[in-house]
Design goal:
The protein is mainly α. The protein has 2 helices and no strands. The radius of gyration is 52 Å and the shape is elongated.
Amino acid sequence: MWKSKLRLRPCEKITATVILLSFLTTSPVYAEPLTGQPPNLTESGTRLYSEYEIDLLIDALTEAAHEEIQKAAAEAAKEAVLSVIEREAAAMREATLQQAEALRWRLEAEGQIKAVKEAKRVGIKNAVIAGAVCLLGGLAVGIGGTLIIGGK
Protein backbone atom coordinates (compact mmCIF):
# COMPACT_ATOMS: atom_id res chain seq x y z
CA MET A 1 0.00 0.00 0.00
CA TRP A 2 2.78 2.41 0.94
CA LYS A 3 4.63 1.67 -2.35
CA SER A 4 1.59 2.34 -4.47
CA LYS A 5 1.04 5.71 -2.74
CA LEU A 6 4.59 6.72 -3.63
CA ARG A 7 4.02 5.69 -7.21
CA LEU A 8 0.85 7.75 -7.48
CA ARG A 9 2.38 10.90 -5.96
CA PRO A 10 3.52 12.36 -9.37
CA CYS A 11 0.09 11.63 -10.84
CA GLU A 12 -1.55 13.60 -8.05
CA LYS A 13 0.72 16.58 -8.73
CA ILE A 14 0.03 16.50 -12.45
CA THR A 15 -3.73 16.22 -11.90
CA ALA A 16 -3.72 19.13 -9.47
CA THR A 17 -1.70 21.24 -11.92
CA VAL A 18 -4.09 20.50 -14.80
CA ILE A 19 -7.12 21.38 -12.68
CA LEU A 20 -5.60 24.68 -11.57
CA LEU A 21 -4.60 25.58 -15.12
CA SER A 22 -8.09 24.81 -16.37
CA PHE A 23 -9.46 27.42 -13.95
CA LEU A 24 -6.90 30.01 -15.01
CA THR A 25 -7.30 29.69 -18.76
CA THR A 26 -10.38 30.79 -20.58
CA SER A 27 -11.79 28.50 -23.17
CA PRO A 28 -14.15 29.55 -25.91
CA VAL A 29 -17.79 28.94 -25.28
CA TYR A 30 -19.80 27.64 -28.17
CA ALA A 31 -23.42 28.55 -28.53
CA GLU A 32 -25.97 28.57 -31.25
CA PRO A 33 -25.64 31.42 -33.73
CA LEU A 34 -27.99 34.34 -33.48
CA THR A 35 -30.79 34.28 -35.99
CA GLY A 36 -31.83 37.88 -35.59
CA GLN A 37 -30.05 41.17 -36.00
CA PRO A 38 -27.40 41.89 -33.34
CA PRO A 39 -28.49 44.50 -30.82
CA ASN A 40 -25.79 47.04 -31.71
CA LEU A 41 -26.94 47.32 -35.33
CA THR A 42 -30.18 49.22 -35.12
CA GLU A 43 -31.61 51.36 -37.85
CA SER A 44 -30.88 54.49 -35.87
CA GLY A 45 -27.18 53.50 -35.62
CA THR A 46 -26.67 52.93 -39.36
CA ARG A 47 -25.73 55.74 -41.68
CA LEU A 48 -27.66 56.16 -44.88
CA TYR A 49 -25.70 57.24 -47.94
CA SER A 50 -27.13 59.27 -50.77
CA GLU A 51 -26.92 58.05 -54.33
CA TYR A 52 -24.40 60.77 -55.12
CA GLU A 53 -22.11 59.60 -52.31
CA ILE A 54 -22.47 56.00 -53.50
CA ASP A 55 -21.63 57.07 -57.07
CA LEU A 56 -18.57 59.00 -55.82
CA LEU A 57 -17.47 55.97 -53.80
CA ILE A 58 -17.95 53.66 -56.79
CA ASP A 59 -16.01 56.07 -59.03
CA ALA A 60 -13.16 56.31 -56.51
CA LEU A 61 -13.02 52.53 -56.16
CA THR A 62 -13.16 52.08 -59.93
CA GLU A 63 -10.34 54.58 -60.46
CA ALA A 64 -8.23 52.94 -57.75
CA ALA A 65 -8.91 49.52 -59.28
CA HIS A 66 -7.88 50.77 -62.75
CA GLU A 67 -4.65 52.22 -61.33
CA GLU A 68 -3.86 48.98 -59.54
CA ILE A 69 -4.61 46.98 -62.70
CA GLN A 70 -2.27 49.24 -64.67
CA LYS A 71 0.44 48.86 -62.02
CA ALA A 72 0.02 45.09 -62.06
CA ALA A 73 0.17 45.03 -65.87
CA ALA A 74 3.31 47.19 -65.83
CA GLU A 75 4.91 44.88 -63.26
CA ALA A 76 3.98 41.82 -65.31
CA ALA A 77 5.43 43.39 -68.46
CA LYS A 78 8.60 44.33 -66.59
CA GLU A 79 8.94 40.79 -65.24
CA ALA A 80 8.41 39.37 -68.74
CA VAL A 81 11.09 41.65 -70.20
CA LEU A 82 13.49 40.77 -67.37
CA SER A 83 12.93 37.05 -67.90
CA VAL A 84 13.59 37.45 -71.65
CA ILE A 85 16.78 39.39 -70.88
CA GLU A 86 17.89 36.74 -68.39
CA ARG A 87 17.29 33.97 -70.94
CA GLU A 88 19.19 35.94 -73.58
CA ALA A 89 22.08 36.53 -71.18
CA ALA A 90 22.19 32.82 -70.33
CA ALA A 91 22.21 31.96 -74.04
CA MET A 92 25.02 34.47 -74.65
CA ARG A 93 27.04 33.02 -71.77
CA GLU A 94 26.55 29.53 -73.19
CA ALA A 95 27.60 30.69 -76.66
CA THR A 96 30.68 32.40 -75.21
CA LEU A 97 31.62 29.23 -73.35
CA GLN A 98 31.20 27.19 -76.54
CA GLN A 99 33.33 29.66 -78.50
CA ALA A 100 36.04 29.56 -75.84
CA GLU A 101 35.98 25.75 -75.91
CA ALA A 102 36.18 25.74 -79.71
CA LEU A 103 39.11 28.18 -79.61
CA ARG A 104 40.89 26.00 -77.05
CA TRP A 105 40.43 22.91 -79.25
CA ARG A 106 41.56 24.85 -82.34
CA LEU A 107 44.72 26.05 -80.59
CA GLU A 108 45.40 22.55 -79.31
CA ALA A 109 44.94 21.13 -82.82
CA GLU A 110 47.29 23.75 -84.27
CA GLY A 111 49.87 22.85 -81.63
CA GLN A 112 49.50 19.17 -82.51
CA ILE A 113 49.87 19.93 -86.24
CA LYS A 114 53.05 21.95 -85.56
CA ALA A 115 54.40 19.10 -83.43
CA VAL A 116 53.68 16.58 -86.21
CA LYS A 117 55.37 18.81 -88.83
CA GLU A 118 58.39 19.25 -86.54
CA ALA A 119 58.55 15.49 -85.91
CA LYS A 120 58.43 14.82 -89.67
CA ARG A 121 61.17 17.35 -90.32
CA VAL A 122 63.35 15.91 -87.55
CA GLY A 123 62.61 12.37 -88.78
CA ILE A 124 63.62 13.23 -92.35
CA LYS A 125 66.80 14.93 -91.11
CA ASN A 126 67.62 11.89 -88.95
CA ALA A 127 66.95 9.56 -91.90
CA VAL A 128 69.26 11.59 -94.13
CA ILE A 129 71.99 11.60 -91.47
CA ALA A 130 71.56 7.84 -90.85
CA GLY A 131 71.73 7.19 -94.61
CA ALA A 132 74.87 9.29 -94.95
CA VAL A 133 76.52 7.53 -91.97
CA CYS A 134 75.61 4.11 -93.36
CA LEU A 135 76.92 5.07 -96.82
CA LEU A 136 80.19 6.39 -95.43
CA GLY A 137 80.53 3.40 -93.07
CA GLY A 138 79.92 0.99 -95.96
CA LEU A 139 82.43 2.78 -98.12
CA ALA A 140 85.00 2.74 -95.29
CA VAL A 141 84.50 -0.98 -94.64
CA GLY A 142 84.59 -1.75 -98.36
CA ILE A 143 87.70 0.27 -99.08
CA GLY A 144 89.39 -0.97 -95.89
CA GLY A 145 88.58 -4.59 -96.74
CA THR A 146 89.77 -4.14 -100.28
CA LEU A 147 93.05 -2.66 -99.09
CA ILE A 148 93.56 -5.41 -96.56
CA ILE A 149 92.78 -8.18 -99.04
CA GLY A 150 94.65 -6.52 -101.92
CA GLY A 151 97.64 -5.67 -99.79
CA LYS A 152 98.58 -9.25 -99.02
